[in-house]
Amino acid sequence: MKLYDLSLSGNCYKVRLFAALAGIPLDIVAVDFLAGEHKRPPLIDLNPWGEIPILEDGEVVLRDSQAILVYLARRYAGETWLPGDATGMATVMQWLSTSANEIQNGPGAARLVDKFGYQLDKADTLRRSARILPLIDAHLSRHAWLALERPTIADCAVFPYVALAPEGGVSLSDFPHIRQWIERIKALPGFVPMPGI
């Protein structure tokens, strides 16, 4: 099973992190992002969106980190990381949606501006961050984990761009429960770091 990967990508890291925590072996294939390798064959043939990560598992080819997390959890990790019952699955999935929306467009986008020079509206990324981080911190003041009172793919999805928020000029100093949650994730057996974390 191959993961086409960029070490500095939080979206790629979500997949690497979950696979490490769940003991799922991956063959990591580094993509030369700056040279545009993801925009040319054979990668553009695997993902016409021209984005990474891309997971290739035999005949199954998937794009999008959230979708890849769901696939790996359901196919290889049993009920623990993503339960099959409607309520449990929906509880996890709402956090994957938060990751792909509020977090990606808040602290994730702020990091793109500061670290990689993307031409995005920095003030908007900061406004979005200022809205979502207090909500997450309040949730974590009552729960050790984002969903189901245990680590799930919800934590893997949300973790990277929240933990990397300072690289976008978004401080976590006012969010003690987020900082404690970050340390809980780092203490999980199998945890792997990425640059910046």
From TrEMBL:
Domain GST N-terminal: from-to ranges: 1-80
Coiled-coil ranges from the UniProt annotation: none
Database matches in SUPFAM superfamilies: GST C-terminal domain-like, Thioredoxin-like
Gene3D superfamilies xref list: 1.20.1050.10, Glutaredoxin
Domain GST C-terminal: residue ranges: 85-197
Superkingdom of source: Bacteria
InterPro entries from the UniProt entry: Glutathione-S-Trfase_C-like (IPR010987), Glutathione-S-Trfase_C_sf (IPR036282), Glutathione_S-Trfase (IPR040079), Glutathione_S-Trfase_N (IPR004045), GST_C (IPR004046), Thioredoxin-like_sf (IPR036249)
Similarity comment: family membership: Belongs to the GST superfamily.
PANTHER family, alphabetized: GLUTATHIONE S-TRANSFERASE-RELATED, HYPOTHETICAL GLUTATHIONE S-TRANSFERASE LIKE PROTEIN
Protein name, UniProt field: Glutathione S-transferase
Organism field: Dechloromonas hankyongensis
